[in-house]
Specification:
Layout lengths: L5 H19 L9 E5 L4 E3 L5 E18 L5 E2 L2 E3 L6 E7 L7 E11 L4 E10 L5
Copper (II) ion binds next to loops.
Length: 130
């Protein structure tokens, strides 16, 4: 018969508590998600937008911000602000006038918690067909 070892049991219990506490701890830095955009997702615009803006729930370093037309062709954007700093908002000017059609804003970035993320926003510019 083995002798009871209460200290060992107590240590195992303490270890489990520590593992659970660490495992469920929230990171000190936040994971950024898209909060809102201009144009908004699914927006139907009667005039072409002069700028694009994305706002995030936490600062994000947006490494890629692209505007694609419905043929998948990239349209020029003029990024505003820093591309290397983490900011709660990413903005870009849209040079010229976008012809009527469906567009897609694609972004990728790095959250303060180290996670890479991205997404897309679609909008439509209405107008006379050529
Ligand atoms: Cu994250």
């Amino acid at each position: 018969m083995s002798r009871p070892i209460p200290y060992a049991h107590a240590l195992v219990a303490l270890g489990l508590v520590l593992v659970l506490a660490v495992g469920t701890a929230r990171p000190a830095t936040a994971h950024a998600e898209l909060r809102a955009s201009e144009p908004a997702e699914g927006a139907v615009l009667s005039a072409p937008p002069g700028r694009i803006a994305l706002s995030f729930t936490a600062p994000m370093q947006v490494t890629s911000l692209r505007l694609l037309d419905e043929a998948g062709e990239e349209r020029p954007l003029r990024r505003e602000g820093s591309r290397t700093a983490a900011t709660a908002e990413a903005r870009a000017g849209v040079p010229g006038l976008l012809p009527p059609g469906t567009y897609r804003v694609e972004y990728r970035g790095l959250s303060a918690d180290g996670h890479v993320g991205g997404g897309a926003v679609r909008f439509r510019v209405e107008g006379r067909t050529r």
